[in-house]
Amino acid sequence: MTPYIDIRYNIFTDDEINKMISGFHLNEDKTETYRDTIVLPLRGENLPWFNKKFEPYIHDNVIDWMQIVRWPTGPTQGMHLDDASDETTIASISFLNDDFDGGETFFGDGTIVKPAKNKTIFFTGKNLLHGVNKVSNGNRYTIATWYKKK
92 by DSSP, 3-state: which? Predict the structure, then answer.
C-alpha cells in the first residue's frame, strides 16, 4: 500500500467525545498499562458504531481493533512502524481533547500533526514511520484504531 496521511475533522460530536472520555474513567478497572500510557480496549458492541463513523474515510476496510488511550504527563513514543497484525491495512489516531501540552504525532517524512480536539489522522502505519512527542503537561486522550480489509 502506498504510504499516505489523511487528516479529517469533526467526525464526532462534542457530546460523543465527552461520553468517550467519561466512559474511559468509568471503566478504568478494565484498563491496561502500556509504555506509561493507560489503555482501554474497545470491543464488541462498540465496533459497529465506530465503523459507521469512520466508513467515509476507510473505504473497503473495517476496524480490526481499537482502544482509548490516556497519555499522562511524561510519555513519548519513538519513531516506529505498526505491527498490529498481519491483516492491518491502515491506522488512525483521533484526538479527544487538546487541553494538554506536547503530544504531537510526527512522521518520518517530517510531517508534524498538532493535536486538536476532534481531529483524526488516517495513515498507513505499517509502512510510514511515525511517533508521538512527549506530553509535557496534562492528559492526552486519543482513540487508536487499526483497520483490515472487509
Answer: strand
